Amino acid sequence: MVSDLLKSTDPTRFDLVLLPGFIQWDTTKLEEENSVEIKKGPEFASDLPWILNNIDSVKLSNKTPANKVFESSGERDYEEIVKKKIKTAKENIGYHTFFINEKTSKIMIGNDLPPPIIAEIVNCPEKSNDAILRKVDHYIKSGADIVDIGCVANKSYPDRVKEIVRLIRDNFNVLISIDSMDKDEILAAADEGIDLILSLDIGNYKNFLSLPKDIPIVILPTNIKAAYFPKEPEIRVKNLFKLTQELRRQGFKKLIADPLLETPITPGICNSLEAYFLYKKQVSKEMNMNLKSPLFFGISNVVELMDIDSVGINGLLASIAIELDMGILFTVEHSTKLIGGVRELKESVKLNYISKHKKSPPINHGISVFKAKGKTSQIIPILDTSEAITVKDYDPEYSPDKNGYFKLYVNHYSKEIYILFFSNNDILLKTLIGSNAEALSKKVLELKLTTNLQHINYLGRELKKAEFCLFSGKPYIQDK
Question: How far is 446 from 432, CA to CA, in rounded Å?
Fold first, then answer.
């Protein structure tokens, strides 16, 4: 069809011919025959304005839809910028720019670098080995750079900490940190060659002066042991400077300062952000430049304690982190509402990092972190509704399908939808596993598990809902 259409006109009159992104074939041969660029456009017509407005910034493809080319171009831009910045960072190693563990990883913290992401396994010592490995695998696949062993408050598990470090090391090539204020746990982790320690403060640092001096350590402006937690930004910065000075004097080379990010409203995020701004302002002064350390940004303190979808919060906090040149980000996927949060944060960091180096707002860079919403809208034609059928009432009356019934489940960690088909006397007859609603529904029809139209309608609706929940991280509850 395309070939016939091109023969009916003079294609050389055009600079570019765009075809629908959903076509399954390569346009190269057609392009050569007609001496004009013939590329794949977007998969959806609603994306055409966006593609056309940005067409000069990317090379379109004969094989890949334009919208996916733009997405991959954003990834390439990010990788190219990072590559250049790391090269510069390696030439400026010091107190503010360093490898976390140069022997095992190329990941760096430092000036103008994208901040690595720490993902915490909460109450890790009390979890089973299988649960820990499952969580580590999920975090790595989601984009975490460091996996954190989150210890249990007021309980000490030094032997278990050693076991967990060995367990993770035996199964994954990933940096490991420990989040504890307990002396025995921190020393046990250090014995196993932990890559990063959270946290020392002015109340416990003297217990750890024998630690290897090249382990990165997060420092706090608190004295947790004495229940001292300063509110004033000035005091927090002063305490961080004092602790930095003392630990550097003891020979510690890799310190990460945490002014403490707090929850909105109570105790209040604005006050804590002021501490970050003040730290950046103070270390820019000549008298304090030698005290400058990378900053720690505990995003989970905000995301975890808000009943608001995490994707927007992660996006906004990532923009603040990049704008303030944070050294490292800390997050968690402990509760159901935070499933997928590490990936959201990783993509948000990429988008904002590209934006910073292109000196533009974080928009139209080929990376987007939309889930429930988007940038395009549907144009509704003028409709004649004079003879339309208005459907208002829904009859929930249920008639059992003689073939049986379905139960659906969503596994966010394995990224799978499970369909369990039972007989009406509760015997499991068939199990289907997949991630695509359409493919699963077609397999149900192919296997003739049901021929009841109402049941097919219901199953299609539920499968699409399950697929959305799988994509968005929202918990799936089957409509009974």
Answer: 12
Residue 206 dihedral angles phi and psi, to the nearest 5°: -65, -20
Using DSSP, state whether 179 is helix, strand or coil: strand
- What DSSP designation does 58 have? S
How many angstroms from the chain centroid is the CA of residue 388?
Answer: 45
Helix (H) or strand (E) holding 429: strand 428-434
Provide DSSP, 283-335: HTSGGGGGG--PBEEETHHHHTT-SS-HHHHHHHHHHHHHHTT-SEEEEE--S
**Which range, of 193-197, 386-390, 398-402, 448-452, averages the lowest pLDDT?**
398-402
Closest CA relative to residue 39, chosen from 2, 72, 80: 2
Backbone phi and psi for residue 345, each to the nearest 5 degrees, phi listed first: -65, -40
For residue 295, with 0-12 CB atoms within 10 Å meaning exposed, 13-18 middle and 19 or more buried, which class applies? buried
> Please, are residues 102 and 90 in contact by the beta-carbon 8 Å criterion?
no
Angle at 216 between CA 344 and CA 245, to 5 degrees: 120
What confidence tier does 328 reach under pLDDT thresholds 50, 70, 90? very high
Contact 43, 20 (CB under 8 A): yes
Last residue of a domain, one of 329, 358, 387: 358
- Shared domain check, 117 and 22: no
Position 51, amino acid? I
pTM for the whole structure: 0.84
Residues 58 and 120 in one domain: no
Peptide bond into 284 cis (omega under 30): no
Which residues make beta-bridge pairs with 406? 421
- Calpha distance 459→446 (Å, rounded): 14
pLDDT digits (tens, 9 = 90+) for 173-188: 999 999 999 999 999 9
Expressed as residue numbers, the domain containing 448 is: 405-472
* Res. 464: pLDDT tops 90: yes
- Which residue shows structure tokens 């989150």? 150
The letter for the amino acid at 75 is: E
Determine the Cα–Cα distance for residues 367 and 73; give it in Å rounded to an integer: 9
Nearest by Cα to 101 from 189, 240, 194: 194
Given 323, 341, 358, the domain boundary residue is 358
Residue 136's nearest CA partner among 148, 153, 151 is 148
C-alpha 466 chain-centroid distance: 20
Measured distance CA(88)–CA(270) in Å, rounded: 33
Of all residues in the chain, what percent are helix, strand and coil, respectively (each to 5)? 45, 15, 40
Per-residue pLDDT at 72: 82
Q: How many domains does the chain have?
A: 3
pLDDT digits (tens, 9 = 90+) for 18-58: 999 999 899 999 999 998 999 999 998 888 887 888 888 78
